[in-house]
Design goal:
single chain, 399 residues, five-stranded mixed sheet, 15 helices
Length: 399
């Protein structure tokens, strides 16, 4: 950590060397009266910005592991360095000693169990940055605004599809549904589908997938989640687990992929899996449930995805629905900076934010947190879980 090394050289802190050559800093030797340390003490040393920086670094590190195991991203190094300095200033008994120490200890604990006070939303305190040796959903969401090429990939894909489908909105809907319904596919099948059904956006579709790691195999087979259809990975105990931790509550058996020794298996790239496939399963499920009711129209992604679902009742009333699947209600609230946009040809009468029932275990506190921090004023009747929304539709229909 460059700052600590500079402080050591300037005599502001003492360090010793371990047998393996690593520095261990003596927090009791920190010269707290120095101008530099006093400046740090006055600042918000461990707040949201630092946690977001660390989260970004963890996500970037996971992506680069196959290429460079030991070169830590700058965001991760800088974020952990700030955390280590905060530990020293706060007099933590066992302060963080660099990235490997942080990843093996604090990153796998809820924030409330870190040995230091954190200036962050209360709901963050129950979250952890790493789960099962991978960045958690909370980590991915927290890092979102700080991503560069990797994190903005799904935005680039969606924006380009919108551009190419400007004169054919149905192409956009079909493309997005394909990503949701086909999280795992053979190389041969994706080439056929892209050439036959998605010719105008063929390259975009092909670029949305990558080869599945062989390490995801259990025995000689890959397995998909029985609930969401996504590829399952192996935990350190060789147990199959879905990336979407909420699927475990459904208790559905893993589905083995059919043997195909002559073809490679591909899956959606990571941010498409998280920001398109995961919420998309709930969007399509809600669409299917609503189509079984006596509505005049249930339209998915109207006018190039102005929102998720457009409902027209027999009396002509129009409702707009945005389905959101986020671990952190606070993070989601900060992303919503304007009301749901209205269609030009058929503006809605009422709009709703609906959360998948997989999040129902988070309780009304989740809804209250979202409404409380959202930049857009929302009535209590505009925010609810999936099942409650279906009942609201049924009540209006008088069924």
């Amino acid at each position: 950590m460059d700052t600590l090394r500079r402080w050591e050289a300037a005599g502001k802190i003492k360090a010793m060397r371990t047998p393996t050559g690593h520095r261990r800093y003596d927090m009791t030797s920190l010269v707290t009266g120095s101008e530099e340390v006093q400046t740090l003490e006055k600042g918000s040393l461990l707040g949201e910005d630092t946690l977001q920086q660390i989260a970004k670094g963890l996500c970037e590190y996971e992506q680069q592991i196959p290429k460079s195991l030991w070169a830590y991203p700058a965001a991760l190094q800088l974020g952990v360095e700030k955390l280590a300095l905060a530990c020293l200033i706060a007099g933590v008994r066992q302060p963080i000693q660099g990235v490997p120490d942080f990843v093996s200890r604090w990153a796998q604990l809820p924030l409330k169990d870190w040995d230091i006070e954190i200036d962050c939303p209360e709901e963050w305190l129950d979250k952890q940055l790493i789960e099962d040796q991978k960045p958690s959903g909370f980590c991915i969401e927290t890092a979102g605004e700080y991503f560069d090429d990797w994190g903005n990939f799904q935005k680039k894909v969606i924006n380009e599809v919108m551009t190419k489908a400007a004169q054919n909105p149905e192409l956009y809907t079909r493309f997005r549904k394909y990503l949701i319904e086909t999280p795992v596919v053979t190389k041969g099948q994706i080439f056929v589908d892209s050439a036959v059904d998605f010719k105008p956006v063929q390259d975009l579709l092909l670029n949305s997938y990558e080869k599945v790691p062989e390490s995801y195999k259990l025995g000689e087979k890959f397995y998909c989640c029985g609930h969401c259809g996504g590829l399952m990975y192996l935990t350190k105990d060789d147990e199959l687990k879905c990336e979407n931790k909420h699927c475990a509550k459904e208790k559905k058996n893993p589905v083995p992929l059919a043997d195909n020794q002559y073809d490679e298996i591909f899956w959606l790239k990571k941010d498409l899996r998280y920001f398109i496939h995961r919420p998309g399963k709930a969007e399509l499920r809600l669409e299917e449930r609503l189509k079984q009711l006596n509505l005049l129209e249930v339209k998915l992604y109207p006018e190039l995805d102005q929102y998720d679902l457009h409902l027209v009742f027999p009396d002509g009333t129009v409702w707009a629905v945005d389905v959101k699947f986020w671990e952190s209600a606070y993070n989601l609230a900060k992303k919503v900076n304007q009301p749901i946009r209205k269609l030009k040809h058929q503006p809605y009468d009422e709009s709703f934010f609906v959360f998948p029932d997989e999040l129902k275990s988070y309780g009304q506190e989740y809804i209250q947190e979202f409404r409380g921090y959202c930049n857009v004023p929302l009535k209590k009747s505009q925010v609810m879980f999936e099942g409650s929304f279906v009942q609201k539709v049924i009540k209006k229909l008088g069924i």
